[in-house]
Amino acid sequence: VQLVESGGGLVQPGGSLRLSCAASGFIFNRYVMNWYRQAPGKEREWVAGISSAGASTDYASSVRGRFTISRNNAKNTLYLQMNSLKPEDSAVYFCNVVVTNSHWGQGTQVTVSS
Length: 114
Fold this sequence. Notes:
It is a single chain. This protein is mainly β. The chain contains no helices and eleven strands.
């Protein structure tokens, strides 16, 4: 299993970013996928999840209405569209899948600052 996140960067408050997670080594369209984030000095927290076919999504209350999780099963890619970003959204963002064990990418840094 390999997960590779990209798309992070520095953005001003109120701005937007789109994260991607390229997946390989497993049958992508059979598994629930999740995004997590971890800010300095804090525990890793769940952000959003999506069902295997993409029909069902769920969000942490802190991001609901601002973030959108989606997937393209033909491209084996998971996305996180982040709008109306706040400084408290600054963190390293990770995609995750449980295939026998929990697997993580290397993460991508998101910094929201003026």
